[in-house]
Amino acid sequence: MKIAILSRNAQSYSTRRLVEACKQRDYEVEVLDHLDCYVSLKKGEPTMYYHDKEITGVDAVIPRIGSSVTFYGTAIVRQFEMMKVFAANGSIAITRSRDKLRSMQWLCKEGLGMPATVFAHHAENINNIIKLVGGTPVVIKLLEGTQGIGVMLAETKKAAKSILETFHGLDKRVLIQEFIKEAGGADIRALVVGGQVVGAMKRQAEDGEFRSNLHRGGTAVPIKLTKEERQTAVKAAKAMGLNIAGVDMLQSSRGTLVIEVNSSPGLEGIEKATGKDIAGKIVEFAARKSKATKEFKRTDKVG
User: Fold this and answer.
1) Which residues, 6+ apart, have CB-to-CB distance to 5 below 8 Å?
2) What's the whole-model pTM score?
3) Are the C-beta atoms of 48 and 39 separated by less than 8 Å?
4) Is residue 194 left, alpha or beta, with left meaning phi > 0 and alpha meaning psi from -120 to 50?
5) CATH 3.30.1490.20 holds for 116-179
6) CATH 3.40.50.20 domain range(s) in the chain
7) Which CATH superfamily is domain 183-281 in?
8) Contacts for 229 with CB less than 8 Å, ≥ 6 apart
9) Tens digit of pLDDT per residue, the chain (303 long)?
10) Does the N-terminal or the C-terminal CB of the chain have fewer CB atoms within 10 Å?
11) Terminus-to-terminus CA distance in the chain, angstroms?
12) Rounded to an integer, what distance in angstroms lies between the CA atom of residue 224 and that of residue 230?
């Protein structure tokens, strides 16, 4: 079994843990910086190169694609798919989840609980926009923001209008969302692998901050999910088409609300909070699915 990990940083915690998990199971593993990969397309012969060496013999690929290189990264994942290599997260699913607006539209379509959300081209209709999300304060999010960057809380209508006008003037697209006060600056991150929750933590924002991201100074503790929370996390990952997903949820007075589904969730916070071998679960899933896919193709040819 040979597994390739697409990562721009071989020394990051998540990548190192995936490599360790592969070696512990005696799998051959290689870390590929996807920006150093390039594709070759000929009739019926999709191939790929890393630097000047052709990539061959890979059974499964685990993508760790950063938001700033989504287009190129998913092109590389797609090439692996064309080469009949199992991708732990497919190119279409990564693209779908990376677009905050598109992902919220899919969550809405699937009937999942979510904060009231508005997407508008300008701030001229600010009164109705704020009314649609339940009044101020409101949360304003850049569509391309990650790790809490580009997420702001507007306490008043005047502040919301000012922020929206600024972003629109910079040609930046944003979402306006309902502020869930009762969440108290906390959210839940559930890690879903292969349709099952393999770990969950509750993240709490530091005093004076409403963003609970660990990169923003939040803290994390393990949490036992309710049946509703577990089902919501699994359904959200499925809605995105993701086999591996970090599903972020809020506990509200009207039930569990999904705020984001991440296709490349960091492993450090959740492994340290839960003490679980999440990387091992991901590697085992990728290997199992790769073997099952190859076996199906073999028997299908025989039949």
Assistant:
1) 15, 18, 19, 22, 29, 30, 31, 32, 61, 62, 64
2) 0.89
3) yes
4) left
5) yes
6) 2-89
7) ATP-grasp fold, B domain (3.30.470.20)
8) 188, 190, 200, 249, 251, 256
9) 999 999 999 999 999 999 999 999 999 999 999 999 999 998 888 999 999 999 999 999 999 998 889 999 999 999 999 999 999 999 999 999 988 899 999 999 999 999 999 998 777 788 899 999 999 999 998 876 565 577 888 999 899 888 888 888 888 888 999 999 888 888 999 999 999 999 999 998 776 555 555 555 578 899 999 999 999 999 999 999 999 999 999 999 999 999 999 999 999 999 999 999 999 999 999 999 998 876 655 555 545
10) C
11) 25
12) 9
Please give the backbone phi and psi of residue 94, each rounded to the nearest 5 degrees, phi first: -60, -45
In CATH terms, the fold of domain 2-89 is Rossmann fold (3.40.50)
Question: How many other CB atoms sit within 10 Å of the CB of residue 215?
Answer: 12
Which residue has 């949360």 as its token pair? 139
| CA neighbor of 175 nearest in space, from 148, 139, 209, 210 | 139
**Ranges in the chain annotated CATH 3.30.470.20:** 183-281
Burial class (CB in 10 A: 0-12, 13-18, 19+), 122: exposed
- Which token pair is 253? 């007075």
Pairing of β 28-32 and β 2-6:
parallel
Which two structure tokens, joined as six digits, stand for 294?
């190859």
CA distance 21 to 6: 15
